[in-house]
# Entry
Amino acid sequence: MAKTNPPFMSGVPELLVLRLLVHREMYGYELVKAVRLVTGEAIVLGEGVVYPVLHSLERNGALQAVRKPVNGRTRVYYSVTPKGQERLDRLSDEWGRVSSGINAALGAPANA
# Structure
């Protein structure tokens, strides 16, 4: 089982949720499972993290939510809006810059 995610992961749940939803609509628990799968369980987000991220992104217009009946129940499926695509693009650029910087620091000589 993966360890709890460290504090530096701030912003990562939003990035992962948007990235996964850009490909197809999903409901909350489906996203929880998808994050585990696509990250090889390196990142494990519980429902207590995913649902607040979904609700925040929806409030900000980055996601659209649609209720659909499934086996006598309703599920809320989320999809990315154009505003959400723009947010994903910005977050992806930021993460790429940060990760390049970290990789450079990790590869730098110890006495640099």
Q: What stands out?
A: The chain has one domain: 7-93. The CA atoms of residues 36 and 43 lie 6 Å apart. The first strand starts at residue 26 and ends at 27. Residues 82-107 form the longest helix (26 residues).
